[in-house]
Amino acid sequence: MRLPKEDRPPREGLRFLLRAAGGLTLIVVLAAAATATAGLLKLDTIVQPPPGAPPPVRSAEITPAKPGKPQTILVLGSDRRWSDLKKNNPALSKSVAARSDTILLIRMDPGQQATAVLSIPRDLKVLIPGYGINKINAAYSLGGPDLTAKTIKSLFGADFTINHIVNVNFQGFRQVVDALGCVYADVDRRYYHSNLGLPVSAHYAEIDVRPGYQELCGQRALDYVRFRHADSDIVRAARQQDFLRSAKDQLSTSSLLGQRDRLIKIMQSNTQTDTSLRSVKGVLKLAKLAVFSAGHPVAQIKFPPVYTGDATTGEYVEASAATLQRLRDQFFHASPQVKKQSKATNKKKVPKGSSGTARAAKAKLTGARTAGENLVARTVASRRLGFRMYFPLRLTPNGRYASTVTDGTTVNPTPRVYTIRDRAGRPHKAYRLVVLENIQEGSYYGIQGTDWMTPPLLANPTSSTTVNGRRLLLYKAGSRLRYVAWKRKDAVYWVSNSLTFGLSNAQMLGIAGSMTHIGS
User: How far apart are CA 117 and CA 99, in angstroms?
Assistant: First the structure.
């Protein structure tokens, strides 16, 4: 089927759609990027899926979108299809309960200056219609996308409209990550669990991902983003969003085009959409709105972490009626959020002609020379790196170098020295220092060094400043510093903020400005 010329999306829309995906969660971004590519280049194939593809999502909670009007999309990331329940698929010998790991609302509005993104914590305490009080992710197991949408509407008010539902399972995520050539991610700490020797009741997903900047593919990438043992729901969501930003920064139009057919097959096999997105007309409505919104920044609406309950009753995230109303207002009126962030950023800019030293000096930091020297001395003496190992003279007041626990044994803090390979397979030396800020909140920050001079993470600094005579490259997510980096002729270094941005901008600059080394 060939569309009339006047109804075809512009070719440059692909580039804009990819940029517009910038603030979504990892499942959405990779799925949406692939779907956007397919939708623009093989629209007739996408809206007419082959036999065996997941059936469309049918829900009375979906409100048909009017042309040119705002659209709200509910995106669900699940570990398996809802049809894996025996009551929905009699062919199964037994039920394999489906669970929703990601619940995301996206709103594109021509009348706003931003695309709004709201991640709903899976542990949010809600009233599930017809079932009573439970965590919101239980709605998916009990009634699939339809009951999840109904629960969200009851949460935010009956007039809260949902125009589309997209349901993606994690098998698709693994396959998409591999199809796009994996993702380089800045891993904040060691993620480890082994079921060896544990009773079945204590079993959960095994993982062993060490700290430091590295390439994550397929299953390892999925293990990393889904890890939640000893992490809060908020930290887990932050880790997913951080992986997303890395993936988005590394995606290119050429890589998507090169894997177009493979991506289409992956998305057809692992993605369910509502019936309107199975029609050319429905996809065009959404595509045109996405193209219009492409130049807009993404306003990430933050869900406040208020925890209740205990190990006996179960831990919940709770939100008062006033909090829900505020989140709803922010979601529907994203422009003020963007202006607020911009205003905050402008207030924090270093005055013209300033070195940045004055601002860094105001940071709440404490001396840490002895701890740093003790940490790196043995590694420096071994000459394993071939370039200088920098460490900070100052840390946050609560910061301490992190030990790890492996097989029940606590290992004292040591730098991780390892090899990282670039896209061409060339090896580069690297090291990572991990600093624990708050174990209850799962907050870690780190210092990274490598002789790979052009890692993707450092490709696009947002600005730069000078502290203590050192030119620092700044990398922001909204108004907060995610990384502060600097370069020497033989290596690059950076300070990584915690996943939840626990360090202030002044602290990030103060730590980076205090970096020193021992030896030659």
Answer: 21
